[in-house]
Amino acid sequence: MEDRASATRLNAKNLLQSIQTELQQGYNLSPVEAQVLAQYVQQLIDAQTGLARQPGQIIYQAIAVEEPAGKALKDCRKVAVHLTLSGAEDMRLWASQDMETLRRVRVHRLVYEALAQGGALSQEDLACILGCSLKSIKRIFAYYRRQGQPLPGRGEIQDMGRGVSHKIPVIRKYVQDLSFSQISQHLHNHGLNSMARYLRHFALVMLLQERGLTSAQMQSVIGISENLIQQYCALYTELNCAPYERTLERLKQSVLHVPPLSADELPPAPPVSAAEEKGGPC
């Protein structure tokens, strides 16, 4: 049942649908006009893109990495990404390792190839591309999380699922006074804009937690999931110690330099008890 629902969702991502959506929204064409023109454009693309592929590669329509969660798939911008379905190392792994190891390597490669080309693959995408069950893909994502190397799939990038991708590792490395370029190198050349966004959201969580806001109230102000906010709160509790005090304060100040939130957006902080004022040891 889960795989059948995934197949239905993936139908909204095909190239023809992508072209038709662009023509309707960008050029104000009727659905019929857009469909006819989209079919012609696709024929031209098919005639050209096959020459750019390397042996063992496919061309796949991935959702653009900047598309937000909650947006209908048919309305999301897609990008054509070249994915290596069968790489040079695959035959060696097939001969010396088991199929599960080979599948893990392929999933890792596909996710990062798409990301480098501006696309984000969901777990559903990967199951379709590799011809395996969604449960198998979820097991692979869980394996990499246990290894401390969470894969940046679409669910993790947009915080649609339980994973938080590189958000927590970026913050941990930042408080250790690593530069953005160093952090990027440690995390497979992660984008600087994404890292800046993670740190800004974390700084906002710190400030709002000090104001006494709940996770639900923070969500309405910051616009990220309550699950991620709770993880940021737990991380702040862990890092709120003397070794990181100056770095965390600098991060808070960086947020305070942007236009402040209105009073309507910030509920008044609840009264602080005497016990809370004293605080606890780090």
Outline the structure in words:
With 282 residues, the chain is mainly α. It folds into two domains: 2-157, no CATH class; 167-278, no CATH class. The protein contains 15 helices and three strands. The chain has helices spanning 2-10, 15-27, 31-49, 88-96, 99-116, 123-130, 134-146, 154-157, 167-175, 180-186, 192-211, 215-222, 226-239, 245-256, 274-278; strands spanning 57-64, 78-84, 119-120. It has a three-stranded antiparallel β-sheet, with helices on one face. α11 (192-211) packs across α14 (245-256) and α12 packs across α13 (226-239). The radius of gyration is 22 Å and the shape is globular. It starts with a helix and ends with a helix. Mean pLDDT is 76; it is low at 160-164, 258-270 and 272-282.
